[in-house]
Amino acid sequence: MNNKKTHKGIIIGLLLVMLSACGAGAVLTKRVKLNHPQGVIGADISSYQGEADWEKLSQKLDFVFVKATEGSTYTDDRFEYNFCGAMDAGLYTGAYHFFSFDSEGAAQAENFISAMESTGRCDGMLPPVIDVELYGDYLSEPKSADEVRPQLEAMIAAIEKQYGTKPVIYCTGRAYRLYKDCFEDCPLWERNVYFRPLHDDWCFWQYSDTEVLDGYNGDEKYIDMNYFKGDIKELAAMRIGADM
User: Fold this and answer.
1) Are 211 and 222 in contact (CB under 8 A)?
2) Distance between CA atoms of 44 and 216, rounded to whole angstroms?
3) Of 131, 159, 124, residue with least CA distance to 67
4) 100-153 pLDDT, tens per residue?
5) Distance between CA 102 and CA 72 in Å, rounded?
6) Quick count: other Cβ atoms within 10 Å of Cβ 120?
7) Residue among 177, 236, 235, 229 nearest 206 (CA)
8) Checking DSSP bridges between strand 92-98 and strand 168-172, what pairing results, if any?
């Protein structure tokens, strides 16, 4: 055995391991982004982004989902402004509700529907979205699917009755694994800011939470970006009241 060659091989091996570790670290800290989908691109936004200039934002986006409500009582401070502003700017526009594990599903649906109907602009919107993700103490001690199912199914049923379509379910990978059997055949919108989703059930994909666009002024400088798995005609066909 040639010692010089052995030492050289060890050094090269160590360098490759270090480079690999640095590359993985860059991906995990989002300094390097592997997600660059091309096609129908949109964003989701809430009051955290402050006042939005929809004329500016609409130049970079095809669609947007704006936060409407949370739980059984909360309405986002900038919901109506964002929802109507995005529609007026010509974007395909929808709204989402942050699902609470502490509130009755029927009451959450009532809160969401009330906020939507107050805009008078539901015709032509994208399907409603229920955002199902773990938060607070539920990150370490999530509720079981058997506990979540009755409330989530109640909310899904109420929204479907009101708007004639099943809501889209937004979920993290972990929420998908925990609760996918509760989603009642709803279209899925999955968050994965590192790679493409690890299954093919989704129609929307949140691929980044560290984008910066010109057109808002809130304390939160980043905006979430999303990809629709289809063409623009297919997105248009999802709208409430769209001709099929």
Assistant:
1) yes
2) 12
3) 131
4) 999 999 999 999 999 999 999 999 999 999 999 999 999 999 999 999 999 999
5) 9
6) 9
7) 229
8) unpaired
Handedness of CA 236, 79, 61, 189 (dihedral sign): negative
Residue (of 238, 112, 232) closest to 186 by Cα position: 238
Dihedrals phi, psi of 216, to nearest 5 degrees:
-155, 165
83: left (phi over 0), alpha (psi -120 to 50) or beta: alpha
- How many CB atoms sit inside 10 A of residue 106's CB? 15
Residue 209 carries which side chain, given as an amino acid letter?
D
As a residue count, the chain comes to: 244
- One-letter-per-residue 3-state SS of the chain: CCHHHHHHHHHHHHHHHHHHHHHHHHHHCCCCCCCCCCCEEEEEECHHHCCECHHHHCCCCCEEEEEEEECCCEECCCHHHHHHHHHHCCCEEEEEEECCCCCCHHHHHHHHHHHHHHHCCCCCCCCCEEEECCCHHHHCCCCCHHHHHHHHHHHHHHHHHHHCCCCEEEEEHHHHHHHHHHCCCCCEEEECCCCCCCCCCEEEEEEEEEECCCCECCCCCCEEEEEECCCHHHHHHCCCCCCC
Q: Which of 169, 210, 216 is nearest to 193 (CA)?
A: 210
Give the pLDDT confidence of 53-101 residue by residue, as tens digits: 999 999 999 999 999 999 999 999 999 999 999 999 999 999 999 999 9
